[in-house]
Amino acid sequence: MKKYNGYLIDLDGTMYRGNEVIKEAPAFIKDLKARGIPYLFLTNNSSKTQDQVTDKLNKLGVEAHPEEVFTSSMATAKYLKQTSPNARCYVIGEVGLMEALHREGIHITDQEDCDAVVVGIDRNITYEKLAKACIAVRNGAAFFSTNSDNALPTERGLLPGNGAFTSVIAVSTGKQPTYIGKPEAIIVKEALTVLGTEVDDTILVGDNYNTDIRAGIQAGMDTLMVFTGVTPLEQLETLPIKPTYYINNLSEWTL
What is the residue range of the signal peptide feature (predicted)? Predict the structure, then answer.
């Protein structure tokens, strides 16, 4: 079993399930810290700030610090800074996305006359917000979305995710966005830049084949799938490309 110099670690289904910690998670993180192995918590959640994500982890008993969290909003902001540094962006999203864009110096405008439209989950979405985004995209604005998650698991059941909001604009305009979060490779590449490790020496750990594992595969990275969340063990044989490794839970993994 190969030893890795860095880890990208999913949250929901890997560290916790909803508001319940996965019991093997705290010890896994403590072991990484004790060995001095760098890692980032990698999440598609665009609504939360680093501090908010860290607060939840610590309350659940998983030791975490803000600099160890990397969200799809952060990846989006860094990608925009590289590809469209002077763009005036009309943004649909919550505090996590707004804060990430401000940190990278992205110009945010409330006008539909803009250079780019950026969409993250917005639980205060309105018809007018979607209308402005559609007009801007039709007029030639570049189109970005933090992630393509169509549904979010909650205590109430599956609720609309950012992919569902994004699809309204895509269907209306006939234009597809550049997605940033998992399963796209963009978020992985941006995270590696922050982590400071090479793709060949880093492993992505997650429970969801269609987001976590596919992101690692598309980025050319080794993957470790745990069966503590979305994808059950019974589906393993049907997967088109298998993860590099798979385990029942994190206690079975040797660093």
Answer: none
